[in-house]
Specification:
The chain is α+β, with helices and mostly antiparallel strands. The protein contains three helices and eight strands. Helix content is 36%, strand content 30%. The model has no long low-confidence stretch (mean pLDDT 91).
């Protein structure tokens, strides 16, 4: 049985066709697309869509680095913090490190 961590980033090993929830349209994600494992036994696609994990697995622990990177991306998409960081010469990796440290404190 494959062990997965919540927040883990995986790459699709084959093309996957998914039916959208509201309109029922089919959307295909190509092999190599990066998806995130969530705590509800689902993978999250880049467009925010979700699908149950289709193989036997065990969720064990958290991938805090991957979660921190996802939080940074989300914040940047909503608040454009990347521009602020550039203005104050703060590397994005430093912010991700701080988020990861906070997750370490909370999740362990």
């Amino acid at each position: 049985m494959k062990k997965l961590m919540i927040g883990e980033i995986m790459e699709l090993t084959e093309d996957v066709a998914v039916e959208t929830f509201l309109l029922g349209h089919e959307k295909t994600f190509k092999k190599g697309t990066k998806v995130t494992v969530n705590s509800n036994d689902c993978i999250i696609y880049p467009d925010g869509g979700m699908q149950k994990i289709g193989f036997e697995h065990e969720l064990k622990g958290y991938d805090n680095r991957a979660i921190a990177e996802r939080i940074f991306k989300w914040l940047n998409s909503r608040l454009e913090i990347g521009e602020w960081l550039e203005e104050f010469d703060v590397p994005k990796e430093e912010v991700i490190d701080v988020i990861e440290e906070s997750l370490d404190d909370v999740l362990f």
